[in-house]
Amino acid sequence: MKRFVAGSLARRLISRGGGGYMSTAEMMARPASMQGVMMNKQQSQPYYYYYYWSRMINSVAEKSKEVVNGGGVEAIKEEEKQKKKKKNSDEEQGTVNSYWGLSGPSIKRPDGTDWPWNCFMPWDSYEADLSIDLTKHHVPKKFLDKVAYRTVKFLRILSDLYFKKRYGCHAMMLETVAAVPGMVGGMLLHLRSLRKFQQSGGWIKALLEEAENERMHLMTMVELVQPKWHERLLVLTVQGVFFNGFFVVYLLSPKLAHRVVGYLEEEAVHSYTEYLNEIDSGAIENVPAPAIAIDYWKLPKDATLRDVIFVIRADEAHHRDVNHFAADIQFQGKELREAPAPLDYH
């Protein structure tokens, strides 16, 4: 470091020395009061720059000695080492360093291990209500009821023809569709609330909770069934068509939209019941439950696929009740906000 600093100073002094010399013509162009001063400086220039050089070298040497003796170099190296070590540690843990100072909370399981999920937190998990009545059915009486019922039955025939006995793939496709209505309904109610300066009675949150719950069903099923490329293509197509179609239906007739979802959930309960029958008969292997399902539904550590299907079916039955209830409110000529929403209804 001493050599580097000394070399830099030498180059600087040489450049100054070369640039500091003035010709006689240049000095004569100066005011008379300064000509004598400049002449004296030029006459003593060799001694002047030698004196300046000696002082600078001694000053740099003393400062370098102070830095070395004071441990400054070692401290800098140690600081850089610690920064590099922390960066490598963050990369191993998947931590994203942000200028904004934001970071996820450090959450532990009851057994002291780290909480492994970012898609939901421990306070989002729950124990499903398995006592719900699975046999409930809304008998279609009015014209819109019949339209909704027959539309869902037609869609059920198409899905059965395509998936047949592949219940895992069928459930996966079902969840990609079932997670759409809650998001569309919650979004439109949110915009309506903003336009009309009205509260929603909790229905925005209730419908978004439903959408999130259905999405967690999908995240679980993907752990059990790996979709093929043509099934992924089908998901993209169905989602695009269903989202836009349901969006238009909800704008034109929210009560029809909720009735359609109610009947879709009835069919979901039926589909998962068939899935359970295949597991009980041994046609489908009762594999261990995915870790995400165990944490989300607070299942036992030794839970199996059968346990997962039980809790998903119970969730679908609850969504059935919520959407038929929403449709009934609107068929009675009322708005959803006039009836309290069934929040945290699982």
Automatic annotation (TrEMBL):
Residues 78-103 are annotated as: Disordered. GO terms for biological process: alternative respiration. It is a multi-pass membrane protein. The keyword Metal-binding applies. Its cofactor is Fe cation. Gene3D superfamilies: Alternative oxidase (1.20.1260.140). It catalyses: 2 a ubiquinol + O2 = 2 a ubiquinone + 2 H2O. Binds 2 iron ions per subunit. Its EC number is 1.10.3.11. It is found in: Mitochondrion inner membrane. PANTHER family: ALTERNATIVE OXIDASE, UBIQUINOL OXIDASE 2, MITOCHONDRIAL. GO terms for cellular component: mitochondrial inner membrane; respiratory chain complex. Keywords: Electron transport, Iron, Membrane, Metal-binding, Mitochondrion, Mitochondrion inner membrane, Oxidoreductase, Respiratory chain, Transit peptide, Transmembrane, Transmembrane helix, Transport. This is Ubiquinol oxidase. Belongs to the alternative oxidase family. Homodimer; disulfide-linked. GO terms for molecular function: alternative oxidase activity; metal ion binding; superoxide-generating NADPH oxidase activity; ubiquinol:oxygen oxidoreductase activity. InterPro entries: AOX, AOX_sf. Its main location: mitochondrion.
